[in-house]
Specification:
- It contains eleven helices and 23 strands.
- By secondary structure, the protein is α/β, with parallel strands linked by helices.
- The strands form five sheets. It has a nine-stranded mixed β-sheet. The chain has a seven-stranded mixed β-sheet with strand order 17-18-16-15-19-22-23.
- The longest helix is centred in the middle third of the chain and has 18 residues.
- 38% of the residues are buried.
Protein backbone atom coordinates (compact mmCIF):
# COMPACT_ATOMS: atom_id res chain seq x y z
CA UNK A 1 0.00 0.00 0.00
CA UNK A 2 2.88 2.35 0.77
CA UNK A 3 4.41 1.53 -2.61
CA UNK A 4 2.00 3.67 -4.61
CA UNK A 5 1.66 6.41 -2.02
CA UNK A 6 1.77 10.01 -3.23
CA UNK A 7 1.90 13.34 -1.42
CA UNK A 8 0.78 16.85 -2.21
CA UNK A 9 3.33 19.63 -1.73
CA UNK A 10 3.11 23.34 -2.48
CA UNK A 11 6.02 25.01 -4.28
CA UNK A 12 6.85 28.69 -4.68
CA UNK A 13 7.18 29.46 -8.38
CA UNK A 14 9.64 32.26 -7.70
CA UNK A 15 12.23 30.69 -5.38
CA UNK A 16 11.23 27.01 -5.07
CA UNK A 17 10.32 27.10 -1.36
CA UNK A 18 8.45 23.94 -0.30
CA UNK A 19 5.51 23.85 2.09
CA UNK A 20 3.01 21.23 3.22
CA UNK A 21 0.16 23.75 2.95
CA UNK A 22 -0.72 26.74 0.80
CA UNK A 23 0.47 30.13 2.01
CA UNK A 24 -0.34 33.59 0.70
CA UNK A 25 3.20 34.95 1.13
CA UNK A 26 6.33 32.90 0.55
CA UNK A 27 8.64 32.85 3.62
CA UNK A 28 11.67 32.48 1.33
CA UNK A 29 11.33 35.34 -1.16
CA UNK A 30 8.37 37.21 0.46
CA UNK A 31 6.39 37.24 -2.79
CA UNK A 32 2.60 36.97 -2.75
CA UNK A 33 0.41 34.34 -4.47
CA UNK A 34 3.31 32.31 -5.88
CA UNK A 35 2.48 28.88 -4.38
CA UNK A 36 1.26 26.11 -6.70
CA UNK A 37 0.12 22.61 -5.77
CA UNK A 38 1.98 19.59 -7.14
CA UNK A 39 1.71 15.86 -6.51
CA UNK A 40 4.93 13.93 -5.95
CA UNK A 41 5.49 10.21 -5.56
CA UNK A 42 6.98 8.92 -2.30
CA UNK A 43 7.33 5.30 -3.42
CA UNK A 44 10.58 3.52 -2.76
CA UNK A 45 11.98 5.97 -0.22
CA UNK A 46 12.54 3.31 2.40
CA UNK A 47 14.16 1.02 -0.09
CA UNK A 48 16.58 3.68 -1.30
CA UNK A 49 17.49 4.46 2.28
CA UNK A 50 18.32 0.80 2.90
CA UNK A 51 20.50 0.67 -0.20
CA UNK A 52 22.32 3.84 0.84
CA UNK A 53 23.18 2.42 4.25
CA UNK A 54 24.62 -0.73 2.64
CA UNK A 55 27.02 1.15 0.39
CA UNK A 56 30.75 1.13 1.08
CA UNK A 57 32.24 4.40 2.37
CA UNK A 58 34.12 6.62 -0.08
CA UNK A 59 37.87 7.20 0.06
CA UNK A 60 38.90 10.80 0.79
CA UNK A 61 41.61 12.31 -1.42
CA UNK A 62 44.23 14.81 -0.31
CA UNK A 63 44.06 18.19 -2.00
CA UNK A 64 47.77 17.99 -2.86
CA UNK A 65 47.19 14.81 -4.87
CA UNK A 66 44.83 16.57 -7.29
CA UNK A 67 46.57 17.96 -10.40
CA UNK A 68 45.20 20.50 -12.85
CA UNK A 69 45.96 20.33 -16.57
CA UNK A 70 45.33 22.62 -19.51
CA UNK A 71 42.74 20.19 -20.82
CA UNK A 72 40.53 20.91 -17.80
CA UNK A 73 39.23 23.96 -19.71
CA UNK A 74 37.91 24.00 -23.26
CA UNK A 75 38.18 27.17 -25.29
CA UNK A 76 34.97 28.06 -27.11
CA UNK A 77 36.83 30.34 -29.57
CA UNK A 78 34.43 33.10 -28.50
CA UNK A 79 36.50 35.69 -26.66
CA UNK A 80 33.48 37.28 -24.99
CA UNK A 81 32.06 33.96 -23.76
CA UNK A 82 35.45 32.71 -22.55
CA UNK A 83 35.91 35.98 -20.63
CA UNK A 84 32.57 35.56 -18.83
CA UNK A 85 33.26 31.87 -18.09
CA UNK A 86 36.59 32.78 -16.50
CA UNK A 87 38.97 31.58 -19.21
CA UNK A 88 37.07 28.81 -20.95
CA UNK A 89 34.57 26.02 -20.41
CA UNK A 90 35.42 23.80 -17.45
CA UNK A 91 35.07 20.05 -17.97
CA UNK A 92 32.38 18.45 -15.85
CA UNK A 93 30.61 21.77 -15.25
CA UNK A 94 26.89 22.54 -15.46
CA UNK A 95 26.15 25.98 -16.91
CA UNK A 96 22.74 27.62 -16.95
CA UNK A 97 22.04 30.21 -19.66
CA UNK A 98 18.93 32.25 -18.79
CA UNK A 99 17.06 35.01 -20.52
CA UNK A 100 13.79 36.09 -22.06
CA UNK A 101 12.41 34.02 -24.95
CA UNK A 102 13.77 35.16 -28.31
CA UNK A 103 16.78 36.99 -26.86
CA UNK A 104 19.30 34.76 -28.70
CA UNK A 105 20.26 32.00 -26.24
CA UNK A 106 19.82 29.17 -28.74
CA UNK A 107 21.70 31.08 -31.43
CA UNK A 108 24.65 31.72 -29.13
CA UNK A 109 24.90 28.09 -28.02
CA UNK A 110 24.57 26.80 -31.58
CA UNK A 111 27.49 29.03 -32.58
CA UNK A 112 29.48 27.68 -29.63
CA UNK A 113 28.66 24.12 -30.72
CA UNK A 114 29.89 24.92 -34.22
CA UNK A 115 33.24 26.21 -32.96
CA UNK A 116 33.71 23.29 -30.56
CA UNK A 117 32.88 20.80 -33.30
CA UNK A 118 35.45 22.49 -35.53
CA UNK A 119 38.04 21.52 -32.88
CA UNK A 120 36.92 17.88 -33.31
CA UNK A 121 35.07 17.89 -29.99
CA UNK A 122 32.04 15.65 -29.86
CA UNK A 123 28.97 17.83 -29.23
CA UNK A 124 25.39 16.74 -28.61
CA UNK A 125 22.64 19.34 -29.08
CA UNK A 126 19.34 18.23 -27.50
CA UNK A 127 16.31 20.30 -28.49
CA UNK A 128 12.88 19.97 -26.98
CA UNK A 129 11.44 23.02 -28.75
CA UNK A 130 12.45 22.70 -32.40
CA UNK A 131 12.50 19.94 -34.98
CA UNK A 132 15.63 18.81 -36.79
CA UNK A 133 14.70 20.79 -39.91
CA UNK A 134 14.08 23.95 -37.91
CA UNK A 135 17.52 23.67 -36.32
CA UNK A 136 19.01 23.07 -39.77
CA UNK A 137 17.42 26.27 -41.09
CA UNK A 138 18.95 28.27 -38.23
CA UNK A 139 22.30 26.52 -38.67
CA UNK A 140 22.46 27.43 -42.37
CA UNK A 141 22.30 31.09 -41.35
CA UNK A 142 25.24 30.69 -38.96
CA UNK A 143 27.68 28.75 -41.15
CA UNK A 144 29.00 25.31 -42.04
CA UNK A 145 28.87 22.45 -39.51
CA UNK A 146 30.87 19.22 -39.54
CA UNK A 147 29.99 15.67 -38.47
CA UNK A 148 31.13 16.14 -34.85
CA UNK A 149 27.88 17.93 -33.98
CA UNK A 150 24.98 15.55 -33.34
CA UNK A 151 21.35 16.65 -32.98
CA UNK A 152 18.64 15.00 -30.90
CA UNK A 153 15.01 16.13 -30.68
CA UNK A 154 13.71 14.58 -27.47
CA UNK A 155 11.91 15.63 -24.28
CA UNK A 156 12.04 12.33 -22.36
CA UNK A 157 14.73 12.61 -19.70
CA UNK A 158 15.31 8.85 -19.59
CA UNK A 159 16.04 8.65 -23.32
CA UNK A 160 18.35 11.66 -23.15
CA UNK A 161 20.27 10.15 -20.23
CA UNK A 162 20.82 6.84 -22.06
CA UNK A 163 21.91 8.67 -25.22
CA UNK A 164 24.49 10.73 -23.30
CA UNK A 165 25.85 7.63 -21.53
CA UNK A 166 26.11 5.76 -24.84
CA UNK A 167 27.68 8.51 -26.99
CA UNK A 168 29.76 10.18 -24.21
CA UNK A 169 30.16 13.58 -25.91
CA UNK A 170 32.48 16.32 -24.68
CA UNK A 171 29.74 18.98 -24.53
CA UNK A 172 25.95 18.68 -24.23
CA UNK A 173 23.40 21.46 -24.80
CA UNK A 174 19.86 21.08 -23.42
CA UNK A 175 17.42 23.50 -25.06
CA UNK A 176 15.43 24.07 -22.97
CA UNK A 177 15.15 22.73 -19.42
CA UNK A 178 11.43 23.66 -19.28
CA UNK A 179 10.62 21.06 -21.94
CA UNK A 180 12.32 18.10 -20.26
CA UNK A 181 9.98 15.44 -18.84
CA UNK A 182 10.56 12.65 -16.28
CA UNK A 183 7.86 9.97 -16.39
CA UNK A 184 8.22 9.10 -12.69
CA UNK A 185 6.95 12.59 -11.77
CA UNK A 186 3.28 13.26 -12.35
CA UNK A 187 3.53 17.06 -12.75
CA UNK A 188 3.60 18.74 -16.15
CA UNK A 189 6.81 19.71 -18.00
CA UNK A 190 8.07 23.10 -16.90
CA UNK A 191 6.90 22.68 -13.31
CA UNK A 192 9.36 23.09 -10.47
CA UNK A 193 9.41 19.35 -9.74
CA UNK A 194 10.22 18.46 -13.35
CA UNK A 195 12.83 21.19 -13.74
CA UNK A 196 14.58 20.22 -10.49
CA UNK A 197 14.60 16.52 -11.35
CA UNK A 198 15.95 17.15 -14.86
CA UNK A 199 18.69 19.43 -13.54
CA UNK A 200 19.64 16.87 -10.88
CA UNK A 201 20.03 14.11 -13.50
CA UNK A 202 22.10 16.37 -15.77
CA UNK A 203 24.28 17.36 -12.81
CA UNK A 204 25.07 13.71 -12.07
CA UNK A 205 25.89 13.08 -15.74
CA UNK A 206 28.20 16.11 -15.91
CA UNK A 207 30.16 15.17 -12.80
CA UNK A 208 30.13 11.41 -13.38
CA UNK A 209 31.12 11.41 -17.05
CA UNK A 210 33.26 14.61 -16.90
CA UNK A 211 31.32 16.34 -19.67
CA UNK A 212 30.33 20.00 -19.90
CA UNK A 213 26.58 20.62 -19.98
CA UNK A 214 24.74 23.80 -21.01
CA UNK A 215 21.09 24.10 -20.06
CA UNK A 216 18.81 26.85 -21.35
CA UNK A 217 16.18 28.37 -19.09
CA UNK A 218 13.48 30.85 -20.07
CA UNK A 219 12.45 33.70 -17.81
CA UNK A 220 9.04 35.36 -17.85
CA UNK A 221 7.99 38.48 -15.96
CA UNK A 222 4.83 36.82 -14.68
CA UNK A 223 6.78 33.92 -13.13
CA UNK A 224 4.30 31.34 -14.49
CA UNK A 225 7.14 29.12 -15.72
CA UNK A 226 9.80 27.70 -13.40
CA UNK A 227 12.74 29.91 -14.29
CA UNK A 228 16.47 29.77 -13.62
CA UNK A 229 16.18 31.32 -10.13
CA UNK A 230 14.99 27.96 -8.82
CA UNK A 231 18.11 26.26 -10.17
CA UNK A 232 20.86 28.76 -9.35
CA UNK A 233 22.00 26.81 -6.27
CA UNK A 234 22.27 23.54 -8.25
CA UNK A 235 24.46 24.61 -11.18
CA UNK A 236 28.10 25.73 -11.32
CA UNK A 237 27.67 28.79 -13.51
CA UNK A 238 24.70 31.07 -14.21
CA UNK A 239 24.81 33.32 -17.26
CA UNK A 240 22.07 35.81 -18.09
CA UNK A 241 21.51 37.04 -21.61
CA UNK A 242 20.20 40.61 -21.40
CA UNK A 243 19.08 43.24 -23.86
CA UNK A 244 16.11 44.34 -25.90
CA UNK A 245 15.09 41.61 -28.32
CA UNK A 246 14.14 44.32 -30.86
CA UNK A 247 17.59 45.94 -30.69
CA UNK A 248 20.90 44.68 -32.08
CA UNK A 249 22.95 44.56 -28.87
CA UNK A 250 23.11 41.73 -26.31
CA UNK A 251 24.85 41.59 -22.93
CA UNK A 252 26.00 38.23 -21.48
CA UNK A 253 26.45 38.65 -17.74
CA UNK A 254 27.81 36.14 -15.24
CA UNK A 255 25.63 36.01 -12.11
CA UNK A 256 27.26 32.98 -10.49
CA UNK A 257 30.54 31.34 -11.39
CA UNK A 258 32.44 28.80 -9.30
CA UNK A 259 35.41 28.97 -11.66
CA UNK A 260 35.83 32.70 -12.26
CA UNK A 261 34.67 36.23 -11.59
CA UNK A 262 31.00 37.18 -11.55
CA UNK A 263 31.65 40.78 -12.63
CA UNK A 264 32.62 40.10 -16.24
CA UNK A 265 30.28 40.76 -19.14
CA UNK A 266 30.33 39.87 -22.82
CA UNK A 267 28.91 42.16 -25.50
CA UNK A 268 27.37 40.77 -28.69
CA UNK A 269 25.61 42.27 -31.67
CA UNK A 270 22.79 40.45 -33.44
CA UNK A 271 23.49 40.27 -37.17
CA UNK A 272 22.05 38.37 -40.12
CA UNK A 273 24.58 35.54 -39.68
CA UNK A 274 24.02 35.27 -35.92
CA UNK A 275 25.66 36.88 -32.91
CA UNK A 276 28.82 38.86 -33.56
CA UNK A 277 31.31 39.71 -30.81
CA UNK A 278 31.86 43.37 -29.95
CA UNK A 279 35.57 43.56 -29.14
CA UNK A 280 35.48 47.27 -28.26
CA UNK A 281 32.27 47.87 -26.29
CA UNK A 282 33.20 51.48 -25.48
CA UNK A 283 33.29 52.48 -29.13
CA UNK A 284 30.08 50.54 -29.74
CA UNK A 285 28.25 52.25 -26.86
CA UNK A 286 29.35 55.75 -27.93
CA UNK A 287 28.31 55.40 -31.57
CA UNK A 288 25.76 58.06 -32.49
CA UNK A 289 26.60 60.36 -29.57
CA UNK A 290 25.39 63.93 -30.30
CA UNK A 291 27.91 66.76 -30.43
CA UNK A 292 27.67 69.94 -28.36
CA UNK A 293 24.37 68.80 -26.80
CA UNK A 294 23.44 69.74 -23.25
CA UNK A 295 22.67 66.94 -20.81
CA UNK A 296 25.11 64.50 -22.43
CA UNK A 297 28.28 63.26 -20.71
CA UNK A 298 30.56 60.23 -21.06
CA UNK A 299 31.41 58.17 -17.97
CA UNK A 300 33.72 55.21 -17.42
CA UNK A 301 32.32 52.17 -15.61
CA UNK A 302 34.17 48.98 -14.73
CA UNK A 303 32.58 45.66 -15.65
CA UNK A 304 34.90 43.17 -14.00
CA UNK A 305 38.37 43.92 -15.38
CA UNK A 306 37.02 45.73 -18.43
CA UNK A 307 36.61 49.53 -18.50
CA UNK A 308 33.61 50.63 -20.53
CA UNK A 309 32.81 54.15 -21.68
CA UNK A 310 29.08 54.87 -21.75
CA UNK A 311 27.05 57.97 -22.51
CA UNK A 312 24.66 59.28 -19.86
CA UNK A 313 21.83 61.51 -21.07
CA UNK A 314 19.71 63.74 -18.86
CA UNK A 315 16.73 65.98 -19.60
CA UNK A 316 15.53 68.50 -17.01
CA UNK A 317 12.54 70.73 -17.75
CA UNK A 318 9.96 72.64 -15.75
CA UNK A 319 6.95 70.58 -14.73
CA UNK A 320 3.40 71.67 -15.45
CA UNK A 321 2.03 69.44 -12.69
CA UNK A 322 2.08 69.74 -8.92
CA UNK A 323 4.34 66.71 -8.49
CA UNK A 324 7.37 66.62 -10.85
CA UNK A 325 8.08 63.44 -12.70
CA UNK A 326 11.26 61.39 -12.36
CA UNK A 327 12.16 58.58 -14.75
CA UNK A 328 15.34 56.54 -15.24
CA UNK A 329 16.43 53.97 -17.79
CA UNK A 330 19.49 51.83 -17.11
CA UNK A 331 20.28 53.12 -13.62
CA UNK A 332 18.81 53.13 -10.12
CA UNK A 333 15.77 55.38 -9.75
CA UNK A 334 16.32 56.03 -6.04
CA UNK A 335 19.98 56.91 -6.62
CA UNK A 336 19.01 59.62 -9.11
CA UNK A 337 16.52 61.11 -6.63
CA UNK A 338 19.26 61.15 -4.00
CA UNK A 339 21.68 62.98 -6.32
CA UNK A 340 19.01 65.56 -7.18
CA UNK A 341 18.53 66.17 -3.46
CA UNK A 342 22.30 66.70 -3.08
CA UNK A 343 22.24 69.30 -5.88
CA UNK A 344 19.38 71.16 -4.24
CA UNK A 345 20.92 71.13 -0.76
CA UNK A 346 24.62 71.67 -1.51
CA UNK A 347 24.49 73.83 -4.67
CA UNK A 348 21.14 75.57 -4.23
CA UNK A 349 19.80 74.42 -7.61
CA UNK A 350 16.00 74.57 -7.47
CA UNK A 351 15.10 71.34 -9.26
CA UNK A 352 12.13 70.45 -7.03
CA UNK A 353 9.67 71.82 -9.59
CA UNK A 354 11.36 70.20 -12.60
CA UNK A 355 10.83 66.92 -14.39
CA UNK A 356 14.04 64.88 -14.62
CA UNK A 357 14.75 62.03 -17.05
CA UNK A 358 18.02 60.04 -17.03
CA UNK A 359 18.95 57.51 -19.70
CA UNK A 360 21.98 55.23 -20.15
CA UNK A 361 22.53 55.12 -23.91
CA UNK A 362 23.08 51.73 -25.51
CA UNK A 363 20.68 49.79 -23.31
CA UNK A 364 23.26 48.75 -20.69
CA UNK A 365 22.52 48.90 -16.96
CA UNK A 366 24.98 50.68 -14.67
CA UNK A 367 24.88 50.13 -10.90
CA UNK A 368 28.43 51.20 -10.02
CA UNK A 369 28.67 54.24 -7.71
CA UNK A 370 31.46 55.63 -9.93
CA UNK A 371 28.84 56.93 -12.40
CA UNK A 372 27.34 59.28 -9.77
CA UNK A 373 29.43 62.25 -10.90
CA UNK A 374 28.42 61.65 -14.51
CA UNK A 375 24.72 61.69 -13.60
CA UNK A 376 25.19 64.91 -11.63
CA UNK A 377 27.07 66.59 -14.49
CA UNK A 378 24.42 65.54 -17.01
CA UNK A 379 21.57 66.85 -14.80
CA UNK A 380 23.23 70.23 -14.24
CA UNK A 381 24.20 70.51 -17.89
CA UNK A 382 20.58 70.04 -18.95
CA UNK A 383 19.27 72.29 -16.15
CA UNK A 384 21.58 75.17 -17.17
CA UNK A 385 21.40 74.29 -20.87
CA UNK A 386 25.20 74.27 -21.14
CA UNK A 387 27.01 71.55 -23.03
CA UNK A 388 29.98 69.56 -21.73
CA UNK A 389 33.17 69.16 -23.74
CA UNK A 390 32.70 66.20 -26.11
CA UNK A 391 36.28 65.06 -25.43
CA UNK A 392 35.84 64.91 -21.65
CA UNK A 393 34.89 61.93 -19.48
CA UNK A 394 33.98 61.98 -15.78
CA UNK A 395 33.69 59.41 -13.01
CA UNK A 396 33.49 59.43 -9.24
CA UNK A 397 31.19 58.58 -6.36
CA UNK A 398 29.14 61.42 -4.87
CA UNK A 399 28.44 61.52 -1.14
CA UNK A 400 25.57 63.17 0.71
CA UNK A 401 27.78 66.09 1.69
CA UNK A 402 28.51 66.82 -1.95
CA UNK A 403 32.05 65.41 -1.82
CA UNK A 404 33.50 63.32 -4.66
CA UNK A 405 34.84 60.08 -3.22
CA UNK A 406 37.49 57.82 -4.68
CA UNK A 407 36.86 54.77 -6.89
CA UNK A 408 38.93 51.75 -7.86
CA UNK A 409 40.99 50.95 -10.96
CA UNK A 410 41.53 54.61 -11.88
CA UNK A 411 44.49 53.91 -14.18
CA UNK A 412 42.51 51.48 -16.35
CA UNK A 413 39.67 53.99 -16.72
CA UNK A 414 41.96 56.86 -17.75
CA UNK A 415 43.91 54.65 -20.16
CA UNK A 416 40.66 53.55 -21.84
CA UNK A 417 39.62 57.20 -22.29
CA UNK A 418 43.04 58.04 -23.71
CA UNK A 419 42.87 55.10 -26.14
CA UNK A 420 39.55 56.31 -27.55
CA UNK A 421 40.81 59.85 -28.16
CA UNK A 422 39.48 61.77 -25.15
CA UNK A 423 41.60 64.76 -24.15
CA UNK A 424 40.48 65.44 -20.56
CA UNK A 425 39.23 63.42 -17.63
CA UNK A 426 37.54 64.55 -14.38
CA UNK A 427 38.31 62.18 -11.53
CA UNK A 428 38.10 62.29 -7.71
CA UNK A 429 40.82 64.50 -6.24
CA UNK A 430 41.94 61.73 -3.87
CA UNK A 431 42.83 59.57 -6.91
CA UNK A 432 45.22 62.05 -8.55
CA UNK A 433 48.30 60.35 -7.11
CA UNK A 434 47.43 57.08 -8.89
CA UNK A 435 47.47 58.64 -12.38
CA UNK A 436 50.42 61.00 -12.07
CA UNK A 437 52.50 58.93 -14.51
CA UNK A 438 49.89 58.91 -17.31
CA UNK A 439 50.65 61.38 -20.10
CA UNK A 440 48.78 62.42 -23.22
CA UNK A 441 45.51 63.26 -21.46
CA UNK A 442 44.62 66.12 -19.10
CA UNK A 443 43.48 64.82 -15.71
CA UNK A 444 41.45 67.16 -13.47
CA UNK A 445 40.80 66.38 -9.82
CA UNK A 446 37.44 67.32 -8.27
CA UNK A 447 37.09 67.35 -4.50
CA UNK A 448 33.39 68.23 -4.50
CA UNK A 449 30.42 68.48 -6.81
CA UNK A 450 30.89 72.26 -6.95
CA UNK A 451 34.41 71.80 -8.35
CA UNK A 452 33.09 69.59 -11.15
CA UNK A 453 30.19 71.91 -11.96
CA UNK A 454 32.62 74.86 -12.38
CA UNK A 455 34.00 73.07 -15.45
CA UNK A 456 30.76 73.64 -17.38
Amino acid sequence: MAKGKSATIFFCQNCGYESAKWMGQCPGCHQWNTFVEETISTAGKGKSGAIRSAQTPGKPVSLKEISLEDEDRLTTHSGELDRVLGGGLVRGSLTLVGGDPGIGKSTLLLQVCRMLAADEREVLYVSGEESLKQIKLRANRIGEFNEHLKLLCETGLGTIEETIRHTKPDVVVIDSIQTMYQESISSAPGSISQVREATGVLLQLAKGLNISVFIVGHVTKEGTVAGPRVLEHMVDTVLYFEGDRHASYRILRGVKNRFGSTNEIGVFEMAAEGLREVENPSEFMLSGKPEHASGSVVVCSMEGTRPMLVEIQALVCHSSFGIPRRQTTGTDFNRVNLLIAVLEKRLGLQMGNCDAYVNIAGGIRLQEPAVDLGIVMALVSSFKNKSIDDKMIVFGEVGLSGEVRGVGMVQARVQEAKKLGFTSCVIPKVCMEAVKDITGIKVIGAGSVADAIDLL
